[in-house]
Amino acid sequence: MPDDIDVFDRLLEIALLIQADMARELEPAGLTAARTHLLWVAHSSGPSTQQALAHALQVSPRNVTGLVDALEARGFVRRSPHPTDRRATLVSLTEQGTQAVTEMEEGRRRIAAHVVSDFDVDRLQHFRADLDAVTARLHELMDPS
Amino acid sequence: MPDDIDVFDRLLEIALLIQADMARELEPAGLTAARTHLLWVAHSSGPSTQQALAHALQVSPRNVTGLVDALEARGFVRRSPHPTDRRATLVSLTEQGTQAVTEMEEGRRRIAAHVVSDFDVDRLQHFRADLDAVTARLHELMDPS
DNA sequence: TATTGTTATACTCTATAACTATA
DNA sequence: TATAGTTATAGAGTATAACAATA
User: What Pfam families does the database record attribute to this sequence (chains A, B) (predicted)?
Assistant: First the structure.
């Protein structure tokens, strides 16, 4: 019987493949993983302060400044003044930004459907449960609270 | 029934958790993901030219120079002249480098055992098969040859 | 002429610290 | 006094292009 470590190897390989695939599709448009992550969060949360984005992304405020600069220069997001707090700026998606997110969602849906396309309903259900169990265990390891 | 995209979300979350966990353990020693990857490959392949490492890592030769510089400065690898080709240098692991790889292997084995610790033999076997199927499908997407 | 590794240059992600404007 | 965002500075990963030494 193989050692459990091969499960880790499989998961790690999948992780690398997923990230490589995502990078391949995004980079032509000037979108990198970090910028896409911010775009994704801003889309989910609606117009957000950079402070809020920094917190959501677990990243320094300075880092958010740079990412928003890049996304703004490429037309994916827009900065606007906060209506009540003149220190803050609100980051929201432009039409182009919203469209990019929509296309990425479609791409992910297409990938997801492809990778499990020959699983029957029962197998897919078990696979989901297994992944959830693994995720929970990984969270335990990261956050031993 | 949920959309298949949630499988992708689960896999992506696992990918991020694995990488976060690996980063957390390595960085104190001055090892980053990129340096660790090179260390891993050099360990598996034995003494290698930087050219060979660049090819194995799918990265530019210039990048390898920087990674080897950093690993050499921290005592994980050693450069030595190639016995027959005076243009090339051979990169090999020091005692400290070998020990670091050994410790990482133990860490990965521990994590792997933990994440599937409540799977019985049958479930684990199915899970492996599912991961292999997903990996194969992802390779198809990446490499439509 | 081709290849190995390096210097030169540039872009990106990331962080901390100091600073400005506002709360 | 504290907070939001920026400038300043720094380290790391990555790339291409030009160059030296060697094949």
Answer: MarR
